[in-house]
Design goal:
Elements: H1 7-13, H2 22-42, E1 52-56, E2 62-64, H3 65-78, E3 84-89, E4 96-97, E5 107-115, E6 126-134, H4 144-147, E7 156-162, E8 166-171, E9 176-182, E10 187-192, E11 203-205, H5 216-226, E12 237-238, H6 244-254, E13 256-260, E14 271-272, H7 273-286, E15 289-292, E16 309-310, E17 312-316, H8 317-334
Parallel strand pairs: 3-5, 11-12, 11-13
Antiparallel strand pairs: 1-2, 3-4, 5-6, 6-7, 7-8, 8-9, 9-10, 13-17, 14-16, 15-17
Helix pairs in contact: 1-2, 2-3, 5-8
Length: about 325
């Protein structure tokens, strides 16, 4: 880079001439929330913020203290600005309309406040995932219809990775750019411009412990990734962290595919469509990749429930197309 570019400068430089600033400032609100969460995660071992909060979320999963903190910070930074009409969080049972005392905005924010929270206590990378939609009806206050929109209608999506450094990666539908937090300046600086999934890809990410729960088509796909089935190029190496943001980020930088297939006892899969799969599918497509549930594009799935789950295959387009082919063959064999 020939010059230092802060995220604020980048956002304002690339907003269209007709922009009113509402969407631009929303992105900066998210960046501010990321800084606050990063400050706490970097000090998590030194303060009383590790461990369980003693409650479970709507998914039936134990909430970690940092989960609760991150969820509260994002809500409190965004609820009063006049930029949103509603929010929805993986950690909350219901969607959150903007309180009546605040001006209604034009956008909807959906987010997973702290993905990979089971890794918090062992100091492994975790992250925040977010997506932004336009509200459906500009004349009405936030409604469930504003939140339950397919990923194809996203106007922005991104994630924050809290690891050896803190990175914010996002897209507004015009490519993917990454920013690294400089702790001395307290600012996100442009570090990864116009990110694209490399080809040939290097890695695949999947939890092999669930192998016996997968369908024959998925098992065949894993053999293909490993080079057991005939394929061009070298076999891919296996890398699995267990934090979706961290696995996705590595594959975005090195090329590869993240897989969380349906299981025999969980045909709907595990990944949350609204808070995880949709935003990452939008990011992947903007980086030249593709996301599928194994049979259709993630971005085309119409959500019917706030906490709807889905199988997920996301990464290099050629790799995801192949799992669709194997599952199509499986369906034809069963019919």
């Amino acid at each position: 880079m020939s010059k230092i570019v802060t995220i604020e400068r980048f956002i304002f430089d690339y907003q269209p001439d007709y922009a009113r600033g509402e969407f631009t400032n929303l992105l900066y609100d998210i960046a501010l929330a990321a800084k606050v969460i990063a400050h706490k995660t970097n000090r998590a071992g030194l303060t009383d913020i590790l461990g369980r909060a003693g409650a479970t979320n709507i998914q039936g999963e134990q909430q970690q203290k940092l989960d609760v903190f991150a969820d509260d910070i994002i809500f409190r930074i965004c609820d009063h600005t006049g930029r949103l009409c509603a929010m929805a969080s993986e950690e909350r049972d219901e969607f959150m309309p903007i309180p009546e005392q605040y001006k209604k905005g034009s956008y909807v924010l959906v987010y997973d406040p702290l993905d990979g929270s089971s890794n918090i206590d062992v100091n492994v990378s975790i992250g925040t995932i977010f997506g932004v939609y336009r509200c459906v009806d500009w004349d009405l206050r936030g409604r469930i219809e504003d939140v339950l929109q397919p990923g194809r209608k996203l106007v922005a999506a991104g994630y924050v990775l809290f690891g050896s450094s803190t990175m914010l990666v996002y897209t507004t539908g015009q490519g993917v750019n990454g920013f690294t937090l400089d702790p001395e300046l307290g600012e996100f600086l442009l570090s990864h411009e116009n990110m694209r999934l490399p080809d040939p890809p290097a890695y695949y990410s999947v939890n092999h412990a669930y192998y016996e729960r997968w369908s024959p088509g998925v098992k065949r796909y894993l053999h293909w990734l490993q080079g057991s089935e005939e394929r061009e190029g070298k076999p891919l190496s296996s890398r699995y962290i267990g934090s979706l943001v961290a696995d996705f980020h590595r594959n975005l930088l090195r090329g590869g595919v993240f897989c969380y297939p349906a299981e025999n006892n969980k045909p709907e899969g595990k990944i949350r469509l609204l808070y995880e799969a949709g935003p990452l599918a939008f990011l992947a497509e903007q980086a030249g990749g593709y996301a599928s549930n194994g049979r259709s594009p993630i971005l085309d799935i119409e959500p019917t429930d706030l906490h709807q789950r889905t199988p997920l295959f996301v990464g290099n387009r050629s790799l995801v197309y192949q799992v669709e082919k194997f599952l199509q063959d499986e369906d034809e064999a069963d019919s």
